[in-house]
Amino acid sequence: MNSQVIGLxxxxxxxxxxxLQTTAASELPAKTLGGQTISSISQELxxxxxxxxxxxxxxxxxLVARLSGQVVLAGDSVDNLRLLLDRMLEATIAVLxxxxxxxxxxxxxxxxxLYEPVDLAKSExxxxxxxxxxxxxxxxxxxxxxxSTPVIPLFDNILVVxxxxxxxxxxxxQVMDNLLEGIVEHxxxxxxxxxxxxxxxxxxxxxxxxxxxxxxxxLGARCILVGIRPExxxxxxxxxxxxxxxxxxxSLQAGxxxxxxxxxxxxxxxxxx
Length: 273
Hints:
Layout: H1 4-11, H2 13-27, E1 32-33, E2 36-37, H3 38-52, H4 59-73, H5 78-96, H6 104-111, H7 115-148, E3 152-155, E4 158-164, H8 169-186, E5 190-197, H9 203-218, E6 222-226, H10 230-239, E7 247-248, H11 252-262
Parallel strand pairs: 4-5, 5-6, 6-7
Antiparallel strand pairs: 1-2, 3-4
Helix pairs in contact: 2-3, 2-5, 3-4, 4-7, 5-7, 8-9
């Protein structure tokens, strides 16, 4: 690309970077962005733009994509990175205009050649930032689901899964995944599924529970459904839900006592002297 401005840009990268750093220092309160100093990012952006016109198209876009991900993961604002891109163009004009020998009109025409890769880089910045933020949200959601569906070893070969709150398809899958992993990890033979914390029972929730019980059976574990409240039982009857294949108890204690008998244990009250 035969352009005096492009040639001058390659020759005066250091001066443009210095000008950008000076401008950034006055506008950006933070000294770092995405774990890097503003100074080093400024140098990288200028070098990346220079590479665009040295046989490496897309160099600036790739650089900004990487920096955007770092900025989001560090909890910083990508607006600051976008500001640096805008200020880089301003710094370029400030440094190169006095050096150019072309007419002002020609200078403006040639400087526009720098705008296209910068605009593409800003579009990529937004795309990567959104993608990274969505991934963070997904990971946080998975972590919350795992916390809300614990699998607790209660005794030798006995696990308890306390369900609290509403259960949708996503959470039901997490419950099943956690339970099956827990059965394998703890070599469990009995699982107590405590539904006393589930506020509403409908056919969908009942279906999820039955699928979970069936999956546990395939791994050799027997399930006891505990914490069935009177209104829960009435709902099951009204909806015509068939729980005949599932052992049920009204409390966790009753379920635990039954589980112990299955494991050939027996609870015995110790008389106080």
